[in-house]
Design brief:
Radius of gyration: 14 Å
Number of strands: 8
Strand order of the largest sheet: 1-8-4-5
Largest sheet: 4 strands, antiparallel
Strand content: 35-45%
Structural class: mainly beta
Order of helices and strands: EEEHEEEEHE
Length: 145
């Protein structure tokens, strides 16, 4: 099997709270209100629309396992969290603004994985604090094809 990877680079924001129990999101927006409790990072440099065609096709399988690795460069050390989810035949992967991982099976144009084993609220609080301080982060999405 071949691992296909998409990488999104973004940065944290002072309003990152990471309190949402069923999703996490990165967005191309350069702002974030306190109500955006699933958003982990802003100013993302890639979106589902920009993902490679082969990556998208691999994600559209019920058998696909998608691994999201979030790496945050904190002031004193790097933090890393991994969340594993599934693909789904209904993934369109066409949104040009944000990427969302979900613990449910709900799918819309922003969804990059379903049945995730974690969400924003499950992340290590030191990682979240680093994001709230504006730390740079990388979201690596990997799927086996």
């Amino acid at each position: 099997m071949t691992e296909l990877v998409e990488t999104i680079t973004a940065r944290g924001h002072e309003n990152v709270r990471a309190e949402h129990a069923s999703t996490f999101e990165v967005t191309t927006d350069d702002w974030l209100t306190p109500a955006g409790d699933c958003i982990l990072a802003v100013e993302a440099d890639a979106t589902p629309r920009t993902f490679d065609r082969d990556f998208k096709e691999a994600c559209r399988s019920h058998d696909a396992t998608i691994t999201a690795t979030l790496t945050v460069e904190g002031p004193s050390r790097a933090h890393e969290e991994t969340i594993v989810g599934s693909g789904h035949p209904d993934l369109t992967l066409i949104d040009d603004r944000s990427a969302v991982a979900r613990t449910s099976t709900y799918v819309d144009d922003r969804t990059v994985m379903v049945d995730a084993d974690g969400a924003a609220a499950d992340l290590d609080r030191d990682l979240v604090d680093a994001l709230a301080d504006g730390a740079p982060c990388t979201l690596r999405l990997a799927v086996d094809a």
